[in-house]
Model the fold of this input.
Amino acid sequence: MAVKAETIRQAKKYLENKNLSIKVVKPRLFAKVSQEMGSSFDDLLETIQKELENGTADSSNQKTDQRL
Done:
């Protein structure tokens, strides 16, 4: 699915306003993921931040499930 140039520009401006390096977070990719998820830039950034803070369910650094 193609992302419109205007959406990419909006993503770039959004990332710059949030003081995120566009070298690390690519505006085109950010816009594409936002579009495919059907979420706003704010929602996507919040989701990414939560995942980075908490880790994901299949993260290798989580404790194994030990039941008594």
Remarks:
- The mean pLDDT is 86.
